[in-house]
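Homework-ish question, so no full write-ups if that breaks the rules, but can someone show me the predicted structure for this set?
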Amino acid sequence: MKAYTYLAPGHFSLAEKPRPTLQNERDAIVRVTLASICTSDLHIKNGAVPAARPGVTVGHEFVGVVEETGSALSIKRGQRVAVNVETYCGNCYFCRHGWVNNCSDEQGGWSLGCRIDGGQAEYARIPLADTNLVPIPDGVSDEAALFTGDLLSTGYWATDIAGIGEGDTVLLIGAGPTGYCTALCALLRRPARLIVCEKDPFRRAFFKAHFPQAEVVSPEEALPLLRSAGHGGADCVIEAAGSKESFRLAWEGARPNAVVVIVAMYEEAMTLPLPEMYGKNLTFKTGGVDGCRMDEIMAHIATGDLDATPLITHTFPLSEIDRAYALFEARADGVMKVAIRP
Ligand SMILES: [Zn+2]
Ligand SMILES: [Zn+2]
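A: Not a homework solution, just the prediction itself:
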């Protein structure tokens, strides 16, 4: 089968590999029907993910059809499924608390498409599949289900730990694909105001077109608007942009005693100027998604409450995946997300 493979820093290639086989009673083999390209894949390509194993098939956000099942699984062959970015065991100390990003199983956390073969391929072996596959209901397309396991899980988790309540003012920094899915999840919680800050004019326009209820502003406009908000800033902040400036805005734009959730990945250390912040009494929550609520997310997709399909601006066959990466990497042609069809 064909599988897009990380060879060495700077090099991905569409390689011929044997079809994966069951190795464990909790394994499933999934025939991939649609996969996404994620910014994290670019981080692997750029050599910025030390855990990534050369030779691994990349891709960690995908949907498909169950082809083979280990003896411990109740899911049936032929079932359409979305795959979790984080394969977690469900039994360890961290999983029992819902902190599946830190699952202590050796295949736990983000391993698919990083430490073990992922889904930019014709087939993938999913370990611990009883906890990491969610059925796709009839009537939900592959496109609608595609972001369940990564982007929508991230937005769902971030808006949950931010504690967004009805009537809150929410500041979301970053209107890329993660911001888009986070906004969808935030709106489920009925905030009074959703203020979205983004420096890229194209992304601001894209966001405005899809979220007429949001106030979409540039970084220069954000602080004056937030200072005039109810209590001098946002009640909840979610930072999904990942620069020094966006990190500063995250705490500056928060009202005293607010919760600030850091979803973004930074390429350098960030500094909290504590003397300047003294008395603001903020709560920071940081880290990687605890992606264990795919069933709830899929239910929202099925009712139409979460629709991230407009994010898929381009689709390529697996045979043209090099071209798809080049487009995604260059942010050319108005691309937001690229889907790959094996
Ligand atoms: Zn990802
Ligand atoms: Zn675990």
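Now go work out the reasoning yourself. Hint: The chain has a mean pLDDT of 96.
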